[in-house]
UniProtKB/TrEMBL annotation:
InterPro entries: AbrB_dup, AbrB_fam. GO terms for biological process: regulation of gene expression. The chain crosses the membrane at residues 6-39, 51-68, 80-100, 136-163, 183-201, 208-228, 234-250, 262-284, 290-314, 326-344. Keywords: Membrane, Transmembrane, Transmembrane helix. It comes from Rossellomorea aquimaris. It holds the Pfam family AbrB. It comes from the Bacteria. This is Ammonia monooxygenase. One of its GO terms (cellular component) is membrane.
Length: 355
């Protein structure tokens, strides 16, 4: 069997089992777990090209774009000061955890800071490549472990009795449950537009272009008052499968066995960051007319696509969630690189760079 087809079959099997067990984000988490164990315990050849991940991101971006309206845009603009405050708070706390990690493991502070800031795996690894004395293995492990921790922990938290107060937000703009429409030409047209917008976003080097392009274009249609057809549930499931299978290939740490203590410490600091975000979410929900659930998913230090899928599953306010994650990505993309490069020139950061 072809490696790609085999990976798809294994992912569907895992997602099916998780669905039967009524576990949250069953197709995403189930495919991740099944692919991971097949990769680890068998000699089967599995593969999953990055363009399948991009298709999943386009589907998620389309769904996120549907949550926008003129009212949500006004709400996002009014929350810009809160976005800045929360983003800075999360970054500062991440840097504190990076300092503790450096002290406990002896790894260079520059590497742990670059790996700890929740700016996205690809963006922070690319930033690490541009700077001197950065251990890319450390950066990658920290980013992957934080991302995987959030992907696994947040869904179980938001589906737990702790959050049974319900989703949505006070602004009343949460995305309604997805329906399965017929594949009319209107949906096909908008989906083609979403695909093209992802391609254009990649050409102009936007962050996470396959998702951000459809968000901006489909969201623009929604704000302009167009009636955009709903994304069918089967395609949402396909997006979860595609992303879950892709993320599972990031769970291979066999080349870093000597960093086992560091990996465990990274997991601990990731959970500490989640607790910090939970505390900030309580403050945010008091500041604005949004639920604690929406605030928590908005501030969780995971990827925008993964948190959007969690928000969609619990009917939280996707536009607010996307606004906070997008603001953090752009802030880290444009502000953090120059700041870190200047910071790392200080003599304090030149000590103990090598593991």
């Amino acid at each position: 069997m072809h490696p790609i087809l085999l990976a798809f079959v294994v992912g569907v099997a895992g997602g099916g089992v998780f669905t039967l067990l009524h576990l949250p984000l069953s197709w995403l988490l189930g495919s991740m777990i099944s692919i991971f164990f097949v990769n680890k315990w068998t000699k089967l050849d599995l593969a999953w090209p990055s363009y399948f991940r991009d298709i999943g991101l386009i589907i998620v971006g389309y769904a996120i774009g549907q949550s926008f309206s003129q009212e949500t845009m006004i709400e996002i603009v009014t929350q810009l000061p809160s976005m800045l405050t929360m983003t800075i708070a999360i970054i500062v706390f991440s840097m504190v955890l990076a300092y503790i990690t450096s002290k406990m493991t002896g790894i260079g502070l520059s590497s742990t800071i670059t790996g700890s800031i929740p700016g996205g795996l690809s963006q922070m690894v690319a930033l690490g490549e541009e700077m001197k004395n950065i251990d890319l293995t450390v950066v990658t492990i920290l980013q992957v472990i934080r991302l995987l921790s959030v992907i696994f922990v947040v869904p179980f938290l938001v589906f737990s009795p702790l959050f049974k107060s319900g989703g949505g937000s006070g602004s009343g703009n949460a995305l309604p449950p997805f329906e399965v429409p017929s594949f009319q030409w209107v949906f096909i047209l908008f989906f083609i537009i979403a695909i093209l917008s992802g391609i254009v976003a990649k050409r102009i080097h936007l962050p996470t272009p396959a998702m951000l392009g459809p968000i901006l274009v489909i969201g623009g249609f929604m704000v302009a008052g167009f009636s955009v057809p709903h994304m069918p549930d089967p395609l949402i499931i396909l997006a979860q499968l595609s992303l879950g299978i892709y993320f599972s290939f990031m769970m291979n740490f066999s080349s870093s066995k000597e960093l086992s203590k560091f990996i465990l410490w990274s997991l601990f600091t990731s959970l500490c960051l989640l607790l910090c975000c939970a505390g900030l979410s309580l403050v945010l929900s008091r500041w604005h007319d949004i639920t604690f659930l929406t605030a928590f998913i908005s501030l969780a230090p995971g990827g925008m696509a993964e948190m959007a899928l969690v928000g969609q599953a619990v009917n939280a306010d996707l536009s607010i969630i996307t606004g906070y994650h997008l603001f953090r990505i752009l802030f880290i993309l444009f502000i953090i690189p120059a700041s870190l490069k200047g910071l790392f020139k200080l003599s304090f950061f030149q000590k103990g760079q090598q593991y």
